[in-house]
Write a structure and sequence with these properties.
Blueprint (H helix, E strand, L loop, with lengths): L3 E5 L26 H8 L4 E4 L3 H4 L3 H4 L12 E6 L6 H5 L8 E5 L2 E8 H6 L17 E4 L10 H18 L13 E3 L4 E3 L4 E2 L4 E3 L5 E3 L4 E2 L4 E3 L2 E3 L4 E2 L4 E2 L3 E3 L4 E2 L2 E3 L2 E2 L4 E2 L4 E3 L2 E2 L4 E2 L4 E2 L10 E4 L2 E4 L7 E3 L4 E2 L4 E2 L3 E3 L4 E3 L3 E2 L2 E2 L3 E4 L2 E4 L2 H14 L6 H13 L6
Parallel strand pairs: 1-2, 1-3, 4-6, 7-10, 8-11, 9-12, 10-13, 11-14, 12-15, 13-16, 14-17, 15-18, 16-19, 17-20, 18-21, 19-22, 20-23, 23-28, 24-29, 25-30, 28-31, 29-32, 30-33, 31-34, 32-35
Antiparallel strand pairs: 3-5, 4-5, 26-27, 35-36
């Protein structure tokens, strides 16, 4: 039987919150591709099976991924890849023709493993929620230097380089659109890939001097906008008039953006249509930022930025860091985020004051008053938002929202 990939979550998945309450870690976007898509590209000849934490596996996972859920008896030869690993050619080379079972490690983090037979089956023995590799006998441990996500802001650090890496991975799969767009200036056109059925209006400037620009299919870019690479604009997305998209920015599929965006990731199905600054930030799925919403990404004294979570403070070591905003959160016009803001999913923010730098999931903010967002109201709103995109809100979706709502009760105090 051919070898099989198991892309798994580990017990440290929640270190990446507020971004992964609703999705497996491997659905995070960094660069052009999600982590799962990177694995599928690098291991294109191997079948990829998926593992996730229990509450996702029991609710939404089967709906998202048909017939690719992990089964330890599917194969006798396995490559295990930690979903927090940003894989590269060096990482993959260890699995090209392994002569023995191996575990790849970066410091004390397990990045991946090549296992066979009983060793492969034993990592999930006893109904474990997460795989265990440390007790395996007779397996060679190799220390490798591969990027590993310890914190959510690591995605922002890596995004520019990953746009360039992903561009090399996927450019060969696409026929370059050589159409000349009237009035569009494309600097270093050889490093710009434009998908089919795109509408790019005159007076748009595409500048790939510092890195590639990848534009998906059915993208609309309004006039007087500029995009500086490395940059990615996902399929079916819209860039509004007078937008400034600076380097190291990824705009995922089915999103609408405007204003000024720098070194940020907008995952998918999210809107920042109007003026306002977004810098060194990560915006989850189904987020809507009202007109004038902006974030600070640099402290006045230029000191390293600390983040707050559950009453504790952590030094990120970053001079530039904006807001990390979880899925389904909405902001009213004029919302202002401070440096290093961690905003949970399913928050509704309406305030004429600066937004608190930490908001637990399902928080309703009305000026200085914070309370729990009513569960039935968030479901009602999400159904409307889904319907606007032609997506049906299912019973499994409701179960997932309830699981996340219950899981995060302790964070809501």
């Amino acid at each position: 039987m051919n070898r099989t990939i198991c892309l798994f979550e580990d017990a440290g998945w929640n270190n990446l919150n507020p971004l992964v309450y609703f999705i497996p870690v491997y659905e995070l976007r960094c660069g052009i591709l999600t982590i799962k898509e990177k694995v599928e590209k690098h291991f294109s000849s191997d079948k990829v099976l998926l593992h996730a934490r229990r509450y996702l596996a029991e609710t939404i996972l089967g709906q998202l991924y048909d017939n690719i859920l992990f089964d330890p008896y599917f194969s006798d030869e396995w490559i295990f890849i930690n979903a927090r690993t940003i894989i590269n050619d060096n990482f993959c080379s260890y699995f090209s023709n392994p002569s023995e079972e191996i575990i790849l490690r970066n410091n004390n983090f397990i990045l991946g493993a090549y296992l066979k037979g009983e060793n492969a089956k034993s990592v999930f023995a006893g109904g474990r929620e997460f795989p265990e590799f440390n007790s395996l006998k007779g397996v060679k441990v190799i220390d490798v230097k591969t990027s590993f996500l310890e914190h959510p802001w690591d995605l922002i650090k890596l995004n520019g380089a990953e746009i360039s890496n992903d561009y090399k991975l996927i450019k060969a799969d696409h026929t370059l659109n050589e159409r000349n767009y009237e009035g569009v200036v494309a600097h270093h056109r050889e490093h710009i890939c434009i998908g089919v059925h795109c509408n790019i209006e005159p007076f748009v400037f595409l500048n790939a001097e510092k890195g590639p620009i990848y534009i998906g299919d059915n993208v609309k870019i309004y006039s007087h906008s500029s995009i500086e690479g490395p940059a990615y604009i996902g399929s079916n997305s819209m860039i509004k008039t007078h937008s400034s998209i600076y380097n190291n920015t990824s705009i995922g599929p089915v999103s609408k953006v405007g204003g000024e965006i720098e070194n940020s990731i907008v995952h998918s199905y999210s809107n920042k249509q109007h003026y306002g600054f977004l810098g060194h930030s990560y915006i989850g799925q189904w987020v809507n930022l009202g007109a004038g919403t902006s974030n600070s990404d640099l402290k006045n004294n230029y000191s390293p930025i600390r983040v707050k979570k559950n009453g504790e403070s952590e030094d990120t070591g970053m001079t530039f860091l904006g807001a990390l905003i979880g899925d389904y959160t909405k902001t009213a016009i004029g919302s202002r985020f401070s440096t290093g803001s961690l905003i949970g999913p399913c928050c509704n923010i309406i305030t004429n004051q600066a937004v608190p730098s930490y908001l637990p999931p399902f928080t309703w903010v009305l000026n200085e008053n914070l309370c729990q967002y009513d569960f039935d109201k968030i479901i009602e709103t999400t159904k409307i938002v889904y319907a606007r995109r032609g997506i049906i809100f299912t019973d499994d979706d409701r179960r997932l929202f309830r699981e996340v709502f219950n899981y995060t009760k302790s964070e809501k105090g």
